[in-house]
Amino acid sequence: MRCDVLTLFPGMVSPVLQESILKRAQKRGLLDVRVHSLRLFAEGKHHVTDDVPYGGGPGQVMKPEPIFAAVVAITKSCGRVRIILPSPRGIPFNRAMAKSFAEEDRSLLFICGHYEGIDARVQRGLEAEEVSVGDYILTGGELAALIMIDASARLIPGVLGKDASLNEESFEASLLEYPQYTRPRVFQKMEVPEVLVSGNHRAIAKWRREQSILCTLRNRPDMLRRATLTAREQERVMGGVNE
Ligand code: ADE
Q1: Which pTM does this prediction carry?
Q2: Are strands 129-132 and 81-92 parallel, antiparallel or unpaired?
Q3: Which of 32, 38, 70, 137 has the smallest C-beta neighbourhood within 10 Å, fewest atoms?
Q4: Is 139 found in the same domain as 109?
Q5: What residues contact residue 129 under an 8 Å CB cut-off, 6+ apart?
């Protein structure tokens, strides 16, 4: 997966790419992320990238010219691009989109907005996809771009181990993950559930499945509607699962 991030604040993006799994994925050649400073594409002595909004109102709007100039330059170096505009106005980012990013042949070019937003001609002229990472407003598009890169990169084959892909399947089944425990067996008077130390793999699988359903019911009841449950499980969910 190749990503290009166009930003006024490269320092918000680059350090995150130098750690942990994203760093390893880049080292292994599975992920290639380039961070570009938008300021370098702004003309004039002061490299101005924003201006007041037409029609009045508070704040500043990011100008289209430096962004178009940057996109031309970046496209020259990486070929075909799929342009993503992180924005709270966008369509919701989800696992299906992460998968499509991970499988994308084109470079993913994230244009990070700040201030009151980006001149609307950027979206229109570049046919950019506006994508939101949640119903809240961030200070800019950088963290949103990183969320999308991170969630997509872990779906590239080889980026995570084999075990992790099993997790993905459980999310695809529209259930949240069951709780995990490690040693010590007793910590601050809290004990690891007996079943997990029983060695009974059937009982463990049953317990985990129940815990997944319970957690989903508690935290994401909306997801349960899409989950594939057995008739018995469905009955218990309706009854509030109190066994
Ligand atoms: N920029 C600011 N808020 C955002 C959000 N929720 N999603 C994507 N980009 C954003």
Answers
A1: 0.94
A2: parallel
A3: 137
A4: yes
A5: 82, 83, 84, 85, 90, 91
Report the distance separating Cα 210 and Cα 13, nearest Å.
39
Ligand 1 centroid, distance to 189 Cα (angstroms): 42
Domain span at residue 118 reads 2-153
Mutate which of 137, 143, 146, 147 for ligand 1 pocket (most atoms within 8 A of beta carbon): 137
CB 212 within 8 A of CB 175: yes
Model confidence at 209: pLDDT above 80: yes
Instruction: Name residue 72's amino acid.
Output: V
pLDDT at 208: 96
Q: Kindly state the average pLDDT of the residues 36-60.
A: 97
CA angle 86, 88, 90 (to 5 degrees): 65
Does the Cβ of 132 fall within 6 Å of ligand 1? yes
